[in-house]
Amino acid sequence: MALLQIISAMAMAIAAPLFLGQPLFTLPVAAQAQWSRVHEIPGFGLGTWRSNGDQAAHAVEYALSLGYDHIDAAHIYRNEDETGKGIADANVDRRYIWVTSKLWNTDHQPDRVEPAIRQSLSDLGLDYLDLYLMHWPVAFVPGDGTELDRETSIVDTWRAMEDLVRANLTRFIGISNFSRRNLNVILDICDICPYAHEFELHPYLQQNDFVNFHKEVGIKVIAYSPLGNTNPIYNGRHGNLPPLLEDPFWKKLADVKGASVAQTVLAWGMRRGTVVIPKSVHENHIYQNMFSLEINFNVLEMYNISQQDKRARMNNPSESWGVELFADLDDHTSLDGNKGQEL
After folding, report:
1. What is the predicted pLDDT for the residue at 232?
2. Residue 214 resides in a domain
3. Which one of 62, 68, 77, 204 is the catalytic residue?
4. pLDDT at 16
5. Number of helices and strands in the chain (H, E)
6. pLDDT value at residue 30
7. What confidence score (pLDDT) does residue 26 get?
8. Residue 288 included in any domain
9. Residue 245 burial (CB < 10 Å; 0-12/13-18/19+)?
10. Which end of the chain has fewer CB atoms within 10 angstroms, the N or the C?
11. What is the distance between the alpha carbons of residues 127 and 55, in angstroms, rounded to a whole number?
12. CB 249 within 8 A of CB 197
């Protein structure tokens, strides 16, 4: 049995005698959040980006049945209802799982922030979130398009998100896909400061200085796309690089560890102190990924891995949105004129 399963089984066994039946009354959201047994974000979870329909529901249910305790969701993934179905079908105690969702760009206007989280909660079938992230530091005009709203700042949006914590709709708030400059803007004004920052991290885009900066200021780092260019949506990006799972360096290291390349890469992500959220809808991958929890590295191995950084970003909508993202980070896209202004 994998380590995560053992820990989860022990925790549930301890709690089981207290919660065999339905509660006689419903606790306020604040009390439910305070009673959460997951005090810190788990270092390993299931991503749900590009998981469709029934596949998403089954993947979430299966992962939770194995002992996963962390689900990463978002409104723009358009599958939060199915993610919520998977949570419900797994019949797990809400207090033993961590659920993250994200505010989409069309809902940055302060009066739209609370309705947006309430919609996510309704779709997920939950009373509160553990973490709610500003998905991008970019505001769109409400609707279905990507027209920029240059009147709404990330500070305006953050202030409204702070109120979500005060209203007990989420335990923590955070950010996603921010540059260092934009992060500092929030740190300069926050009353409730970011708990976590989710951004692209993998062996081909290690961003060691940026990761270390988060450690210095006490912000958790969540690595999305932790397996790099294995996601089909990244086909053609940095075509000079081999698929990560076929990279000779990683294949050799995986052989040393007696593990798959995917397991070894995920283990490295956790050992450097980041949270990894690999996405899969395949039972075998969901199960096999758990064994990354059992892999360790020595100092020399960690150093050698750091020398494999390609500074290759796979996810960058700067050109399509007309705004310069990641301006002070590796592999950003520079735009000309007004279109190149960083929001």
Report:
1. 81
2. yes
3. 77
4. 31
5. 13, 8
6. 53
7. 37
8. yes
9. middle
10. N
11. 24
12. no
DSSP run (H or E) holding 283: helix 283-289
Residue 81: burial class (beta carbons within 10 Å; 0-12, 13-18, 19+): middle
Instruction: Name the nearest CA neighbour of 290 among 37, 36, 70, 41.
Output: 70
Q: Is residue 99 part of a domain?
A: yes
Q: Which residue has the tokens 């735009």?
A: 335
**CA dist., res. 329 & res. 207, Å (int):** 8
pLDDT at 94: 96
Alpha carbon 228 to chain centroid, angstroms: 14
For the question of residue 204 being annotated catalytic, the response is: no
- Please check whether residue 131 is in contact with residue 174, taking contact to mean a CB–CB distance below 8 angstroms: yes
**Parent domain of 164:** 35-232+242-335
Residue 236: other Cβ atoms inside 10 A: 7
| Residue 35 confidence (pLDDT) | 60
Give residue 34's pLDDT. Answer: 58
CB 177 within 8 A of CB 137: yes
Q: How many CB atoms lie within 10 A of CB 1?
A: 10
| Long-range contacts at 207-216 (CB < 8 A, ≥ 24 apart) | 207/329, 207/330, 208/306, 208/309, 210/180, 210/329, 211/272, 211/273, 211/274, 213/180, 215/273
Show the low-confidence residues of the chain (pLDDT under 70).
Answer: 1-35, 336-343
Q: How many domains does the chain have?
A: 1
Give burial (CB, 10 Å; 0-12/13-18/19+) of 168: middle
Q: Say if 342 falls within a structural domain.
A: no
The CA R_g of the chain, rounded to the nearest whole Å, is 20
Question: Whole-model pTM?
Answer: 0.89
**CATH number of the domain that residue 210 is part of:** 3.20.20.100
